[in-house]
């Protein structure tokens, strides 16, 4: 065994031991522990947990690679994901926390007083979270496959066992504190390589300021090679695709059930807002670094790898070729590796860059541990969302309302294991790149939950029939467009499968509004509950007036 393998393995095993230890120490003993961590998480730590939950394998592993390969067009991912977080923090999170439920389907079921709406929301949660989890498990396979120099498929199954173990043990309580640890590990692992690359290439330790120096140099290289310029806009898709993808990611962010549920783990509306503020800071550290990571990686590949003799390629190329994620072929037979002959998956750019830049075995091991932290943290949150949707919203709230707490916990844990295994099997042969699969999950969330939640919180006239019609139409349109674009080659204005959410959300809003207006209005009680969500917790809307929550005898 070489030194790099031993160092990487030691760091990853140490972090795995930490995660499982935290999960066991914080084992959920009751359902409030399992679903909302007893609503006792401080905002700053909840912000870290949200950051870890949010910065999935797509963010850590896939995003810099996507930007490296797409250039300007890849910025839609950063702008969409970040902008969506603002929508969620200001328009939905505090209001949903005030309503005081465990899950998004439970909010929809109770807000619209409808079991069918609850079941449709629960099924949508399972579909969205399941799709998202396939990308995470695929990412864990990339990391483990590289570490052990085995096929990524076997690495995926190892990840399945780890996720199923610690998610089933701790529930939301264990997941929360595990995610705090995972955030710290993943952000350190992401920042150290990009800072070192910045020092290597520009002699400046601040990559956010220094990578702009490479813009002109890479433009010259692109022109020499006769390829489209890295910073030229809309070279990999139309302007409409860029805007549609950005909207899909923004609306999907505001409707993702596994992210929204994190705001249920704090004690008050104010704490929910502060959680969002802290999370935005923690997320920004990685998102502002991804374009720099992409630029440095591309520059090193273009100047130090492309143009080399095939027989003298660095050792790291062979180990990545063995994972199936890198292809090196001398197409013209001249013995020199041309840029066009280097086919690198965007899923391995972050993982491979420390080796490409020769940053040392410790940094390589640290990045591997960070990538696993990103994949595991999000996968854990997704499995809790799937478990909650089935065990709480379908099994307990609809099928078995008299089930004991012990039975409910057992059903929740079993559903986590089953969902993880099934997602892992599909992730063995994923239907797309990590960022593409994740974009589908966001499209589904933007077509189902975003319209349902926005209208549910901000339009008192929205009723059960409207929300059911909106979710069903949004889900059908989004899925239909994804399949038509990916497998049928059908597009509108050049918008491909990853931008499908713009059509799903539009259709869902229209269906919800039209059907709600064509059917009877919700009860006065429900309409007052909706208006009440707009006021701080110390106030309550009652009988057409706003009152102090602790004294309903005095009007404010």
TrEMBL record:
It is a multi-pass membrane protein. GO terms for cellular component: plasma membrane. PROSITE patterns: NA_SOLUT_SYMP_3. It holds the Pfam family SSF. It comes from the Bacteria. Keywords: Membrane, Transmembrane, Transmembrane helix, Transport. Gene3D superfamilies: Sodium/glucose cotransporter (1.20.1730.10). The chain crosses the membrane at residues 6-28, 49-72, 78-96, 117-134, 154-171, 183-201, 240-264, 276-296, 359-390, 411-431, 437-459, 466-484, 490-515. It is found in: Membrane. GO terms for molecular function: transmembrane transporter activity. NCBIfam families: Na_symport_lg, sss. Belongs to the sodium:solute symporter (SSF) (TC 2.A.21) family. PANTHER family: NA(+):SOLUTE SYMPORTER (SSF FAMILY), SODIUM/PROLINE SYMPORTER-RELATED. This is Cation acetate symporter. It comes from Mesobacillus subterraneus.
């Amino acid at each position: 065994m070489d030194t790099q393998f031993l160092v990487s393995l030691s760091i990853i095993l140490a972090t795995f031991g930490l995660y499982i230890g935290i999960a066991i120490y914080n084992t959920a003993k009751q359902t409030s522990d399992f679903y909302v961590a007893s609503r006792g998480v401080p905002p700053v730590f909840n912000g870290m947990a949200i950051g870890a939950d949010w910065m999935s394998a797509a963010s850590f592993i896939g995003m810099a690679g996507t930007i490296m390969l797409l250039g300007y067009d890849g910025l839609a991912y950063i702008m969409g994901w970040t902008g969506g977080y603002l929508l969620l923090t200001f328009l939905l999170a505090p209001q949903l926390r005030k309503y005081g439920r465990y899950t998004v389907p439970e909010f929809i079921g109770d807000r619209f007083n409808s079991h069918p709406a609850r079941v449709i929301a629960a099924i949508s949660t399972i579909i969205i979270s399941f799709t998202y989890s396939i990308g995470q498990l695929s990412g864990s396979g990339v990391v483990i496959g590289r570490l052990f120099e085995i096929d990524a498929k076997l690495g995926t199954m190892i990840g399945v066992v780890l996720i199923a173990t610690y998610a089933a043990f701790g529930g939301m309580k264990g997941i929360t504190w595990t995610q705090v640890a995972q955030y710290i590990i993943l952000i350190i692992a992401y920042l150290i390589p990009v800072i070192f690359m910045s020092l290597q290439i520009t002699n400046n330790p601040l990559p956010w300021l220094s990578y702009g120096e490479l813009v002109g140099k890479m433009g010259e290289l692109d022109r020499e090679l006769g390829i489209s310029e890295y910073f030229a806009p809309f070279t990999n898709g139309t302007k409409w695709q860029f805007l549609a993808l950005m909207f899909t990611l923004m609306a999907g962010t505001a409707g993702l059930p596994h992210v929204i549920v994190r705001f249920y783990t704090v004690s008050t509306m104010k704490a929910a807002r502060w959680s969002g503020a802290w999370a935005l800071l923690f997320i920004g550290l990685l998102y502002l670094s991804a374009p720099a990571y992409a630029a440095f990686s591309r520059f090193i590949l273009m100047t130090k790898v492309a143009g080399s003799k095939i027989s003298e390629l660095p050792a790291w190329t062979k180990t990545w070729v063995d994972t199936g994620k890198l292809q090196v072929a001398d197409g013209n037979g001249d013995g020199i590796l041309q840029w066009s002959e280097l086919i690198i998956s965007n899923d391995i750019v972050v993982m491979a860059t420390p080796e490409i830049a020769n940053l040392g075995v410790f940094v390589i091991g640290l990045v591997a541990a960070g990538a696993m932290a990103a994949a595991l943290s999000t996968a854990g949150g997704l499995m809790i969302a799937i478990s909650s949707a089935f065990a709480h919203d379908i099994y307990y709230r609809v099928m078995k309302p008299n089930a004991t707490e012990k039975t409910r916990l057992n059903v929740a844990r079993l559903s986590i294991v089953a969902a993880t295994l099934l997602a892992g099997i599909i992730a063995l042969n994923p239907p797309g790149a990590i960022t593409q699969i994740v974009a589908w999950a966001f499209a589904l969330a933007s077509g189902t939950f975003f319209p349902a939640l926005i209208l549910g919180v901000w339009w008192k006239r929205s009723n059960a029939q409207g929300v059911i019609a909106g979710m069903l139409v949004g889900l059908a349109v989004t899925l239909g467009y994804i399949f038509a674009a990916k497998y049928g080659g059908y597009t509108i204005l050049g918008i491909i499968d990853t931008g499908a959410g713009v059509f799903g959300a539009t259709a869902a809003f229209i269906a919800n509004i039209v059907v709600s207006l064509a059917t009877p209005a919700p009860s006065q009680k429900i309409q007052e509950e909706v208006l009440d969500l707009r006021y701080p917790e110390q106030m309550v809307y009652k009988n057409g007036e706003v009152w102090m929550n602790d004294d309903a005898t005095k009007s404010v």
